[in-house]
Write a structure and sequence with these properties.
Length: 306
């Protein structure tokens, strides 16, 4: 199984270098936690001569590093940054490891990287245009009891709450057909989980609000799929969904310090498994320094710390 990642480096002369990795998508957001001094050599170690753009079906993660404007534009489809309980902590650590850089999430996937470069985004668009909706999740489904389940939350009006399997496409892409499809789906009453994406539909006012932690093809063009409706894209602001759902969405509070600790442990495990000894030390030193700044703590003497 391939997990294609795309990397782009924009030079000080405003020229871009393209790289790819067949298995680079797994852990890309943890790779980025090591900061630009570690990440840039890691990216450039790939074979640029054989690299190519992958479309929004096959490209599962990407990072664009603009050295001239100091912009990091990236996305992943799996990892801590797409997990609601860890996302804000991961972005906080990235702010420490990329000081002075503007961090941007590419909600539209690889097409957003190409648009940033002034290239045609259509080149990486999937060509069938088919939406493959996730099936409804029953309350008894084990996924519905996970703390960070791979589900999308759909709330309708003031009395319907549904969960659907997160298959990479947000339910908003279905348009109004979503309402008919879920008419007989299990009603969860109130969602007390931390889903990875969500949508609230107000049929009376014909308004739609939606959010996600990952990416969605043509994320900024969803209004076209809901003709006659007002559509608002909340990006990753799930709290907007909480306000709109009228009590149907009540996620657990986020343990900020616990999330930062989990990310640090994940980074130690990730880098020690996948990197050479010369890279591991500098990478983990950067992560530990960021963790200390974020938590105000000293690194522990045991465990994954040293």
């Amino acid at each position: 199984m391939t997990e294609w990642a795309t990397y782009v480096v924009v030079s000080e002369q405003d020229e871009h270098e393209l790289y790819d990795s067949r298995f680079g998508a797994f852990g890309l957001d943890i790779d980025l936690l090591a900061g630009p001094d570690v990440v840039l050599p890691f990216i450039r170690a790939h074979d640029g001569a054989r690299s190519r753009w992958h479309d929004d079906v096959w490209c599962e993660a990407a990072a664009l590093v603009d050295l001239r404007r100091r912009v990091l534009l990236f996305f992943v489809t799996a990892g801590p940054t797409v997990t609601t309980g860890l996302r804000s902590a991961a972005l906080e650590l990235l702010e420490h490891t990329w000081p002075g850089w503007e961090l941007r999430w590419a909600y539209d996937g690889p097409a957003e990287l190409r648009e940033y470069l002034g290239l045609d985004p259509a080149t990486v668009r999937s060509r069938d245009g088919i939406v493959y909706p996730g099936p409804p999740v029953c309350p008894a489904d084990p996924e519905a009891s996970e703390p960070d389940p791979l589900v999308s939350l759909v709330t309708v009006g003031a009395d319907r709450c549904h969960l659907v399997a997160d298959l990479g496409r947000n339910p908003v892409a279905e348009g109004p057909a979503l309402l008919d499809r879920l008419a007989g789906a299990p009603n969860h009453g109130t969602c007390r989980l931390s889903p990875s994406s969500g949508i609230h539909v107000d049929p009376v006012r014909r308004r739609v609000g939606w959010w996600l932690n990952g990416r969605q093809t043509e994320a900024y063009e969803m209004a076209a799929r809901w003709p006659g409706w007002e559509v608002e894209f909340w990006q990753d602001r799930w709290d907007e969904h909480v306000r709109a759902a009228g009590g149907r969405f009540a996620p657990p509070p986020i343990d900020r310090i616990g999330a930062l600790d989990r990310l640090r442990e994940a980074a130690h495990e990730h880098w020690r498994k996948r990197r050479d000894a010369q890279t591991v030390g500098p990478a983990l030193a950067v992560v530990d320094a960021a963790w200390r700044k974020a938590t105000g703590s000293a690194a522990p003497e045991t465990g994954h710390g040293q």
